[in-house]
Write a structure and sequence with these properties.
Layout (H helix, E strand, L loop, with lengths): L1 E12 L2 E6 L4 E6 L3 E6 L10 E2 L16 E6 L3 H4 L1 E8 L11 E11 L2 E15 L6 E6 L5 E5 L17 H4 L7 E5 L26 E4 L4 E6 L6 E5 L5 E7 L10 E2 L2 E3 L7 E2 L15 E4 L10 E8 L11 E7 L8 E5 L12 E5 L11 E7 L5 E6 L9 E7 L1
Parallel strand pairs: 1-24
Antiparallel strand pairs: 1-27, 2-3, 3-4, 4-5, 6-7, 7-8, 8-9, 10-11, 11-12, 12-13, 14-15, 15-16, 16-20, 17-18, 18-19, 21-22, 22-23, 23-24, 25-26, 26-27
């Protein structure tokens, strides 16, 4: 049995969704309503926000909301150029189908010292969405210096309904960015260029050249292992299965033909088909971790998987292990779950994993809160973000450091 402790770092937050370091000892906490707060190592949050774009973010539903300020990434040379990037849900732009619900924006800002310049916003990419859920929204720079962005399938359920491509849905439709991980070069072009080795570059069909991988439902949190350069990504499932994938160039991860390793039928999402309902020319890539959605199946899992990190710090005895989690063990109770998969497992097979028991948790090794996301500092130590309510109201959000 592997165990962990939690050390409180910050509290009284409103839905904290990201904890990032700029590499200089400064830590940034992203709150869903549109705030990025700055805290320096060992010091409390500054009263003045690093960035406040709450007027650009949609007015969020207080009971449950997946939109908002969702992602943050610092340019690899942030110390010198002050450039950083965010992903947020804003008002539907005029050019969009007016039956859609919102537009997600990837924007660049610049900062000087401890303050970002709100007026410096440069919109890099706009993605219109038919429904409010399944936004994805993570941003990270890869070891190649390119910006990777995770994007959900457009929302609703089953990758169907209005605004979803007929048949296999948005995630399989490579003429759309929905349901994809994309990869762009923000250091050339206006506002960006396509890296020369992107899989669909120069394709004469309608395939979007930004696409790095596809067939994803709601990719919630991704991270690179700095030692292997593997890109790990959590993908929240529909009704039966949750999954973690290692993302590879041009990979098709199956949704909505598959959910996890199982064939999926959008007309009966609780049915596990014995054969695929749609044939594809591409090989569908299975996950490395498959977990039951505990609303409908038993086992160590939960509702909505949360992608984590391969641990590369120095204070925990889990070097090289992948630490991830679940929003909650139960749909309507704050019982977040941490899990761990040991290093050295084969990438072409499903990995074994176990609960990471929280010693100062709820008495059963779980959280007393919902788990929202993971974070990492410049020393590669890990953090989690939690909140006691499932809605986006109140100030019960906390940041915890994983300790012995």
């Amino acid at each position: 049995m592997k165990k962990i402790g939690l050390e409180l770092v910050a509290k009284n937050l409103a839905s904290p969704l990201s904890f990032k370091s700029d590499g200089t000892g400064k830590h940034y906490i992203l709150q869903q309503k549109g705030l990025i707060s700055l805290m320096e190592k060992g010091r409390p949050l500054r009263k003045k926000e690093f960035l406040d774009i709450s007027d650009k973010v949609l007015l969020l539903d207080p009971l449950y909301e997946e939109r908002g300020l969702l992602g943050l990434a610092f340019h690899p040379d942030f110390k010198n150029n002050g450039r950083f990037f965010v992903y947020y849900s804003g008002e539907l732009r005029e050019e969009a189908d007016q039956r859609f619900c919102c537009t997600n924006y990837i924007s660049e800002f610049t900062a000087e010292g401890n303050n970002a310049d709100k007026r410096s916003e440069k919109i890099i990419l706009s993605i219109d969405k038919p429904q409010a859920n399944h936004n994805g929204g993570d941003l990270c720079f890869g070891p190649d210096g390119y910006l990777y962005i995770s994007i959900g399938d457009g929302g609703g359920a089953n990758d169907t309904a209005y605004g979803h491509s007929p048949g296999s849905g948005n995630s399989q439709d490579t003429s759309k960015l929905l349901g994809k991980i994309i990869r762009i070069d923000v250091d050339s072009g206006d506002p960006y260029s396509i890296p020369m080795d992107n899989p669909f570059l120069g394709n004469v069909s309608e395939k979007r050249e930004e696409i790095w991988a596809y067939g994803l439902r709601n990719p919630w949190r991704m991270s690179f292992d700095p030692e292997t350069n593997d890109l790990y990504c959590g993908d929240a499932g529909q009704d039966l299965w949750e999954e973690i994938n290692i993302i590879t160039k041009g990979g098709n991860y199956g949704w909505n033909i598959m959910e996890g390793t199982h064939y999926f039928d959008p007309e009966d999402p609780l049915l596990e088909r014995s054969t695929p309902r749609i044939k594809t020319e591409e090989n569908l890539i299975g996950p490395i971790i498959e977990a039951p959605n505990t609303r409908n199946r038993q086992g160590l899992g939960g509702v909505a998987i949360i992608g984590g990190y391969v641990y590369r710090g120095s204070t925990l005895p889990y070097q090289g292990d992948y630490i991830f989690g679940f929003w909650s063990e139960a749909n309507k109770e704050p019982r977040g779950v941490l899990a761990i998969a040991s290093s050295g497992q084969q990438k072409d097979k499903l990995w074994e994993y176990e609960q990471l028991v929280i010693e100062n948790g709820d008495g059963e090794g779980k959280l007393d809160d919902y788990l929202l996301a993971f974070g990492e500092d410049e020393d590669k130590e890990l953090y989690i973000m939690t909140q006691h309510t499932s809605g986006r109201f109140g100030f019960s959000g906390k940041i915890w450091k994983l300790v012995l």
